[in-house]
Amino acid sequence: MKRQLYILILLSIVTSLVVAQCTSVVAYDDLYGVEYDDIVDVAFESWINGIFSNSYTASGPFRVKVNTHIVNENFINEIVGMKLWDVKPYITWFDGEDNLIEYYNTTIVK
């Protein structure tokens, strides 16, 4: 009987941890705008070394986790604090291969 009780308690703890993890996915909220570790959809016009490139946004907005370990730090720093439908006219940086990356009209769409 005690073993069943322990198993039941353990199961309820594991279940509550799983539920907490599933519901703690960070998403955009309109109070603070985009914050680190949010997941947002971003639309922009991309140019690489002066040549138009729509590789990220060809099929619609680009979904990104706002984290400098995943996406370029300059881009992340520019979008942190933006709110839904805010537009940054120009974001630029050089990637690891010295390519000039330019994003025009960067917009948080979701």
Name some characteristics of this structure.
alpha+beta, 110 residues, five-stranded antiparallel β-sheet, 2 helices, Chitinase A, domain 3, 26% helix, 31% strand
Architecture (CATH level 2) name: Roll
CATH C-level class is Alpha Beta
H/E topology pattern: HEEEHEE
**Relative strand content:** 25-35%
Total number of helical segments? 2
N-end to C-end Cα span: 51 Å
The radius of gyration over CA amounts to: 20 Å
Q: Percent range for helical residues? A: 25-40%
Query: What low-confidence regions span 5 or more consecutive residues with pLDDT below 50?
Result: 19-25
Number of strands: 5
Structural class: alpha+beta
Number of domains: 1
Characterise this structure.
The chain has 110 residues and is α+β, with helices and mostly antiparallel strands. The chain has a single domain (26-108), classed as Chitinase A, domain 3 (Roll), CATH 3.10.50. Mean pLDDT is 76; it is low at 19-25. β1 and β2 (51-53) form a beta hairpin. Strands 1, 2, 3, 4 and 5 form a five-stranded antiparallel sheet that branches. Helix content is 26%, strand content 31%. The longest helix has 22 residues, at 2-23. The chain is elongated and about 70 Å long.
Give a brief rundown of this model.
This protein has two helices and five strands, in the order H-E-E-E-H-E-E. The protein is of the alpha+beta class and 110 residues long.
